[in-house]
Design a protein that fits this description.
It is a single chain. This protein folds into 2 domains: 43-279, Type I PLP-dependent aspartate aminotransferase-like (Major domain) (Aspartate Aminotransferase, domain 2); 283-413, Aspartate Aminotransferase, domain 1 (Alpha-Beta Complex). Strands 4-12-11-10-9-5-6 form a 7-stranded mixed sheet, sandwiched between helices. It has helices at 4-9, 11-26, 39-45, 67-84, 96-107, 155-165, 183-193, 205-209, 246-260, 266-280, 282-304, 323-327, 331-340, 368-372, 377-392, 397-413; strands at residues 28-29, 56-57, 60-61, 88-90, 113-117, 139-143, 145-147, 152-153, 169-173, 196-200, 223-227, 238-242, 318-322, 343-344, 346-348, 362-366. The two termini are 23 Å apart. The protein has 421 residues and is of the alpha/beta class. Strand 7 (145-147) and strand 8 form a beta hairpin. The structure holds pyridoxal-5'-phosphate. The site of pyridoxal-5'-phosphate has 14 residues, from helix 5.
Length: 421
């Protein structure tokens, strides 16, 4: 029996955890930044390592008693380096956003310029959204897509802006962009203007580790930032990888600690080590490839049924659909309606959206979690059909009920697995 002690001691928290267990088991998770971790990852994350303060790095800690924390952190680092083919890894960032901020402070001076993808074209909040404090310290300039129907980035405009604004760092990365970036072009522009090129691969690092998409390090990128809990299927956390420059890696280590964070979350670092070992397993390659196949299967259904997709489709794990333009239902309405039939995804602004962020034109969804459940193309396509059915026939209560039962049946047939190796 799981959660025995919590059950005995604290019914309120116990019931909330059990509620979440059931929600995850019985609903379909299509939020593209979410996944299900193995029981081994959860055990490591729930281990006694949470009791330990380990400020510093392996072999150079501020407190004693580090014989096991050093083992755990070193394992995580060595496995990360192998996974991403690089020479340095900092596995201490508490999450993706802190990894980004620590990196900016490691490599830039206040007032310096960072170039990132426009938020409305798929970029992430940490790449210069005005609501983030980091914009008070650094100057952000943007690049965009040239054509929202194909997703091609406007590299000519990017070079022009870069020449004028002289960014010290160019960020390649996104949280709502369904295509691959042309890393060679980023690297060339960086070289031309003397900027470091950094890839923020929060969403797709699992696809990179599983070799389903390109690795920015193969194109001369200096640094990769990532979360560990999305396609990489590890515990909630962040990580900073450096290809080969010891100078950069040292600056990053200093910036993460003591510059930015206090003690590392060693139980989570142990869970990262376990997840990275899983990702080194050959089955992870199959998993990563299947994520893409499943997204393609959903794309084909949406196209056949006349739903407009930003960039025309997908080359990764996610799809951004213009449900307002195609079906007359807003992103917020679609999110709520699909939630009511057991499908969880999120509303999202589409490129150059005329609607507001809290009720935009689009929905964003993806296949990492359903692929972990064992879905193949057939089931993924069926889910896409059910989604469009629900949105088209949203007034028909009976129809929605029958869709909900079918989703529950699918979930029952594909339980969340306990282990992947
Ligand atoms: C998810 C994500 C982040 C933020 O990660 P958190 O763990 O939520 O802080 C940053 N950048 C990109 C590209 C992401 O996808």
């Amino acid at each position: 029996m799981q959660y025995e002690a919590i059950k005995r001691q604290d019914t309120e928290v116990y019931e909330a955890i059990m509620g979440e267990e059931i929600r995850e088991a019985e609903g379909l998770e299509l939020i593209p930044s979410e996944n299900y971790v193995s029981r081994a990852v959860r055990e490591a994350n729930g281990s006694v390592l949470t009791n330990k303060y380990s400020e510093g790095y392996a072999g150079r800690r501020y407190y004693g008693g580090q014989e096991f924390t050093d083992v755990v952190e070193t394992l995580a680092i060595e496995r990360a380096k192998k996974l991403f083919n690089c020479q340095f890894a900092n596995v201490q960032p508490h999450a993706g956003a802190p990894a980004n901020v620590a990196t900016y402070f490691a490599l830039l001076e206040p007032g310096d310029t960072i170039m990132g993808m426009d938020l409305s074209h798929g970029g992430h909040l940490t790449h210069g959204h005005p609501v983030t404090y980091i914009t008070k310290i650094f100057n952000f300039v943007r690049y965009k897509m040239k054509d929202v129907e194909t997703g091609e980035i406007d590299y000519d405009a990017m070079l022009e802006v870069a020449k004028k604004e002289r960014p010290k760092v160019i960020m390649a990365g996104f949280s709502a962009y369904p295509r691959e970036l042309d890393y060679a072009k980023f690297a060339a522009i960086g070289k031309e203007v003397g900027a470091l090129v950094i890839a923020d691969m929060g969403h797709i690092s699992g696809l990179i580790a599983g070799k389903a998409v390109k690795n920015p390090f193969d194109f001369g990128f200096d640094v990769i930032l990532t979360t560990t809990h999305k396609t990489l299927r590890g515990p909630r956390g962040g990580m900073i990888l450096t290809r080969e420059s010891e100078e950069i890696a040292k600056k990053i280590d200093k910036s993460v600690f003591p510059g930015f964070q206090g003690g590392p979350i060693m139980n989570t670092i142990a869970a990262k080590a376990v997840a990275f070992e899983e990702a080194l397993h050959p089955s992870f390659k199959t998993y990563a490839a299947q994520i893409l196949k499943n997204a393609k299967a959903m794309e084909e259904v949406l196209r056949a049924r006349g739903v407009r997709m930003i960039t025309g489709g997908t080359s990764n794990h996610l799809i951004l659909a213009d449900v307002f333009g195609s079906l007359g239902v807003t992103g917020h309405e679609a999110e709520t309606l699909l939630d009511s039939v057991g499908i969880t995804l999120n509303k999202n602004m589409i490129a150059d959206d005329t609607r507001k962020p809290m009720d935009p034109s689009g929905i964003r969804f993806g296949t990492p979690a359903i692929t972990t459940r064992g879905f193949k193309e057939v089931q993924s396509a069926r889910v896409a059909e059910l989604m469009v059915d629900a949105l088209e026939q949203r007034a028909d209560k009976n129809k929605l009920e029958s869709i909900h039962s079918e989703i529950k049946e699918l979930c029952k047939a594909f339980p969340v697995p306990e282990s992947f190796v």
